[in-house]
Here is the input.
Amino acid sequence: MKKIISVLLVLTMLVSFPAVIAYASDGDYQTYYVSYEVQNKGCYIHPLDGYDQYVEPGADFKFTIEVERDADGNPKYTNAMAIVEANHKTLTPDEHGIYTISEINEDTNILVYLTFEQGKGNLAASILVMLKQMFKVIIEVIRSIIIGNKT
Here is the structure.
């Protein structure tokens, strides 16, 4: 029994060691959390292998977007386009469809919307996404004016 407890203690120490190393001198744990939210059913975010939602300062986070497929393996929404934001900034994928958030230095929220081509899909969803984008821009302009006036 003592050997089992000793082995468990050693394993616990080995697993805890990276967490202890990650603490800063002031005792704050130095990782940021990447959360994600999808606004449409049938759309999914997949972190690439080796990428976790807990990110060290200055690290990158890479992911792909997947749209639900039908029984034949074809995308359910052939006319859909994903709008992807990270902390209110629009992201675009690379030529392989991979989205990258570089040099993360704060908790990050990824938000994904599907929008559809006019006449081929849900026009109301496209209009809502456009209005939301416009509202965010207006809020950012107002925020920058207020902050600019305080300094």
Remarks:
- The mean pLDDT is 77.
- The longest helix spans residues 123-150.
